[in-house]
Amino acid sequence: MAVTRSASTVWTGDLVSGAGETTFETSKIGTFPVTWRARAEAAEGKTSPEELIAAAHATCYSMALSNMLKESGHTADKLATTAEVDFDTSDGARISEIRLTLEATVPGLEDAEFQKLAQAAKEGCPVSAALAAVPSITLDARLA
């Protein structure tokens, strides 16, 4: 069974001087302003597609790892995941790199098994799979 989530964006004007608003339709958590400047230069209180991708990736990765930990007999006290998404305009506009950083507290888990599970979650996360065209997705995973 597929579950659908939706968001929408209304944009006015051209790329550089125009602006838009992105709305989270399913959750109703809000409407957020977007501009080219916020995407390619300074955020100035606005969001961007890359920030939204970062949020999705950090969340999906944490969920995937929590499930893999459970399947291996462990429960995390805490998984603190950050995703940084680089938007590069030097050679066309593209996402050039994503860096996942994880600090985890998992009682009774040895580092070797943790690293194996952390990497497997990166590979198995549906958002990672959707972002497979990104040239570099790295993971720095540490037990606290």
From TrEMBL:
<dbReference type="Pfam" id="PF02566">
    <property type="entry name" value="OsmC"/>
</dbReference>
<dbReference type="InterPro" id="IPR036102">
    <property type="entry name" value="OsmC/Ohrsf"/>
</dbReference>
<dbReference type="InterPro" id="IPR003718">
    <property type="entry name" value="OsmC/Ohr_fam"/>
</dbReference>
<dbReference type="InterPro" id="IPR015946">
    <property type="entry name" value="KH_dom-like_a/b"/>
</dbReference>
<protein>
    <submittedName>
        <fullName>Osmotically inducible protein OsmC</fullName>
    </submittedName>
</protein>
<dbReference type="InterPro" id="IPR052707">
    <property type="entry name" value="OsmC_Ohr_Peroxiredoxin"/>
</dbReference>
<dbReference type="InterPro" id="IPR019904">
    <property type="entry name" value="Peroxiredoxin_OsmC"/>
</dbReference>
